[in-house]
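dumping this here so i dont lose it again. seq + smiles for pyridoxal-5'-phosphate
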Amino acid sequence: MPVRPEWRVIVALSATLAEFSRVGVGRMGWAWVGSDGAGWQGRKGGRYRDGVQLDLDFVRSNFPAFGRPINEGQSFFENAGGSFACRHTIDALTEYYTDFKVQPFSEFESSRRGGELMDRSRERWAEALGVEAREVVFGPSTSANTYVLALAFADVLGPGNEVIVTNQDHEANTGAIRRAAERVGCVIKEWKIDPDTGLLDIAEFEALLSERTGLVTVPHASNIVGSENDVTRITQLAHGVGARVIVDGVSFAPHSLPDVGTIGADVYLFSLYKTYSVHQGLMVVRAGLMAELPNQSHFFNDSVADKRLNPAGPDHAQVGSAGAVLDYIEAFHQHHGGSATDDVRAAVASVSALWRAHEDALTPLLLDALADRDDVRLLGPATLDAVAGHRCPTVAFSPLAQDPRAVAHALVERGVQTSSGHYYAARVLDGLGVDPDRGVVRLSFVHYTSPDDVARAVDALRDVIG
Ligand SMILES: Cc1ncc(COP(=O)(O)O)c(C=O)c1O
């Protein structure tokens, strides 16, 4: 897990938006200092100076979407559905399509270099996530990756095994696994969210575990309630009875790129297209499990680590461009005082901490606009410190007297790019007593979101829901 220092925001979080404009918090960002006054402590270097600021102008200059007429006068709050791509990603894709878009890994130069870029992406992501290159699998999406995993697990699980799933997951990390497990005669146990808070209680998980548990699937953070689950602890407990663990990090990784090696889960998944990169799913399958799961690809790919769990075959250009977002992260790191000699993991950890600090300064403003109201039900924790884990800025609410679609429409009219629906988390809404067909409105943001964006959203909410 990335180190999570507690941050004390110099600008008081409790200030109202009017106060914010009075104290002149502008697009340049925020001032920070570690609560111990010591500044950020990265692993193996990666130390930023005290009081380091996230430079929003620098950040946004790396995302071409902000300068495009189609987004002018609007603020983007559909990040949990897919983030903007950084220019490094766009440039890498353009270059690949222009120069290297041939069958890779042959001897002619365009083919050789295309293949090298694909290998390089895998190696760089492995370093960033703290795992080995042979453990990194790129697939068309996280949904496709979990589908393949479900088929593979169906060959190693059977009657006598129990599978623990949750109703806090996006359907991608639960539906296919449930179907496959049911087909081969496993007992399925559902770890249920609290119907009021949407949170998972780890004590209930412990009660569900048994010697027969073969597999556990769990989200790192929900795409509706936004709270982080202690997946390191969950993994330890599951491993204690010999079970494998699949963690869906799709809603967590855009806010803080995880140290997958330290978490210890057997599988960790996230979607690169929500993480400023290409439209691919990245799946880490730890070596022990990789050897145990049967090949899902052509028979001759059995020993090809990056193909055996991707029957779709690799999307060469996207895999070759998938590592370019790490150029952005390294540039971000150095711009904020990190050293060019720091390794990728150290840079990722430091950058993630600063992303999080920036988000944490803005999240309460959005939560405060929606909490403690009779006409709105805010889903998930209403404050950052309401839960032990991180509260990601994925903020969903149910407008009680208005149609969510109408609310989303009115927000869009006011320049807030958002939407409504169940976001493929129908089981979560059901567990919270919210009709999935009616849906909710979700505002999600990331580190490139500005105080002005949040002010626009809060003003628009005030206008629309009163
Ligand atoms: C938490 C979560 N898990 C899984 C997925 C599925 O990802 P993909 O679109 O890559 O299949 C999503 C997509 O929204 C998600 O939010």
